[in-house]
Amino acid sequence: MSSISVKEASRNAYPKTLLSIVAYVGGLALFLILASTLLVSQPIGSTVRGYFYGVDGSKNIDSDSSFSSTDSELSHIANAFQDGGKPNLAVLGDRGNVISQYGDSNSSASGVGDSKGTLTESDPQEKKESLDSIQLSERNIESQDKNEVLDSIQPHPEVMKEEDGNETSSSNATSQVNPPVYSNEVQPQLNKSVESSANMTNSSQDIVDDSGCDLYRGKWVHDSTGPLYTNNSCPVLTQMQNCQGNGRPDKDYENWRWKPSQCDLPRFDPKKFLELMRGKTLAFIGDSVARNQMESMLCILWQFEVPKNRGNRKMQRYYFRSTSTMIVRIWSSWLVHQTPEPFDFAPAGVVKLHLDKPDEGFMEHIMGFDVIVLSSGHWFAKQSVYITNNEIVGGQLWWPDNTKQKKIDNIEAFGISVETILTALGTHPNYTGLTIVRSFSPDHYEGGAWNTGGSCTGKVKPALEGELVENGFTNIMHEKQVTGFNRAMAKKNNKSKLKLMDITEAFSYRHDGHPGPYRSPDPNKVTTRGPDGRPPPQDCLHWCMPGPVDTWNELVLETIRREFHNR
After folding, report:
1. What phi and psi values does residue 265 have, to the nearest 5 degrees?
2. Closest to 502 in 3D by CA, of 463, 541, 475, 464
3. What is the pLDDT of residue 567?
4. Which Pfam families has this protein been placed in (predicted)?
5. Does residue 87 have a cis bond before it (omega within 30 degrees)?
6. Torsion angle in degrees (nearest 10) through CA of 107, 110, 115, 116
7. Cα angle: 382, vertex 388, 392; to 5 degrees
8. CB–CB of 312/156 below 8 Å?
9. CA-to-CA distance for 187 and 192, rounded, in angstroms?
10. Torsion sign, CA atoms 25, 31, 32, 34
């Protein structure tokens, strides 16, 4: 029997020990694999994965259908608008939670959730809305880029006046608001949710499509509801249009509404307007009547939200932070190119109108505008020289040589100007906005012109059919404007839209809506006819505020609603 040393015995035992260790480790690994598989396959598995990864595997996040948008899936978004909730959703880092910034149960995205507006686990829309919201949030860059364009369209980099009177550099006036930008699938539902009249209940009545109704054929009806604002509640109202503040004794002219024959014109809803114009810019361009309408719009919106003044001497700009909506006004007396320098036999000091060239003063900004409202016509009664193809073809209150025949008068010149500017907008390769041409605004200097005894003094209600005084100048100017509009429509070749807001006939009945002699707060002003019957100095062209002019903006809102709804 051979002997074995202790050293040799321990060396022979090593392989057995290693094999045992490997066997134990392998067995433990197999057990862990089987246990993990069992846990993941059971309901508790979703909790485990949710804890580590923040994803609930019980929901098919990879399904293509998660991005589809049916009416039923998006109806709760539309209802949020109808119920008065603000559809501004903040998407948090965790995909499972979409919380309303307004944090109440009424503004919850689904109507199923806790009192803080958090979507619950049982909400079947959670996955879809979370993914859609993340996709939409990524599009906010587009909205930010739009605001940068708006902030860069100022003609000169000069100091802007803020509302509180402080001077602020334009570079410091950039927006701090990043509103949600809705996808093509969501937007039609949002439009549909705000189409009902202000007199309708939030969701109890079906929405009626009145897109085929003629808004401009109807009648004026008395409405005791009263105006949308008062002269004391609007700080941007021009004093000359502040009829009540200037002492006008009657105010029933504020209580008449326009009623189309075949449908209703909804009362202006500021919230609806700002939602429709979310992230967009509306520009009023033209003469003092454009200013009249722009101030009416601001007065109405001011009752809902106080805007930020971002304007300067060349361009008025009011920014509504809640929806990143901008209201702009640019002065352009004739809407066409004008020069003061001598031209041919026309000396300096007389304005030369190049009727075949648009006013570059606003044309350079049009790509930053989503909706443009144009106003012109009345300045064609002022002194000016008319030029086409670099040739003097006529003039108003100026013509040095009566032996030479004028080729056009001021009425023809107006028609040419309308065709020129609308053709420029309708053929511009980069303009895709909506252009609303407000038709010629009628004046009511009855019994004469503004300087020959014409008057609107004492008119306290709309004219009846038998009381309507025909205005030949208004009628022919309207005719030329419509002709220019139609000619421009025939030439349009871009993606923009042209709409005629034909208010001329309807407002021919509103001889009661002008300031008349109540143009200033001067307590010593003359407001009655003199002993010889001559009327006092008065304004029968512009419109009292509040007053009939507010209807123009109800028509603008309805035009925008129809256009965005069709899109």
Report:
1. -95, 110
2. 475
3. 65
4. PC-Esterase, PMR5N
5. no
6. -70
7. 65
8. yes
9. 9
10. positive
Whether pTM exceeds 0.85: no
- Positive or negative: CA dihedral 284, 557, 438, 462: negative
Q: Look up residue 306 and give its DSSP letter.
A: P
Structure confidence at residue 16 (pLDDT): 55
In three-state secondary structure terms, 67 is helix
As a whole number of angstroms, the distance between CA 356 and CA 550 comes to 33
pLDDT reported for residue 451? 79
Among 324, 325, 322, CA closest to 102: 322
Residues in the chain, total: 567
Report phi then psi at 419, rounded to 5: -60, -40
pLDDT at position 36, please? 60
Return the closest-CA partner of residue 387 out of 340, 345, 353.
353
Across the strands, what pairs with 327? 282, 318
pLDDT of 197: 32
Please give the average pLDDT of every successive group of 10 residues along the chain, which has 567 residues.
47 58 76 63 41 35 33 32 34 32 34 34 39 38 37 30 32 33 34 32 38 90 96 96 97 97 96 98 98 98 97 94 98 97 95 98 97 98 97 95 90 98 98 98 91 90 91 96 98 97 98 97 93 91 98 98 83
Q: Which residues contact 149 (CB under 8 A, 6 or more apart)?
A: 367, 368
Note the Cα 148 to chain centre separation in Å.
17
- Which residues are known to be catalytic? 288, 539, 542
Tell me, what's the pLDDT at 34? 72
The residue behind tokens 């993990």 is 36
| C-alpha to C-alpha distance for 168 and 63, rounded to whole angstroms | 51
Cα gap 356→413, rounded to integer Å: 10
Secondary structure of 146-161 in HEC code, one letter for each residue: HHHHHHCCCCCCCCEE
Of 163, 148, 171, 152, which Cα lies nearest the Cα of 309?
163
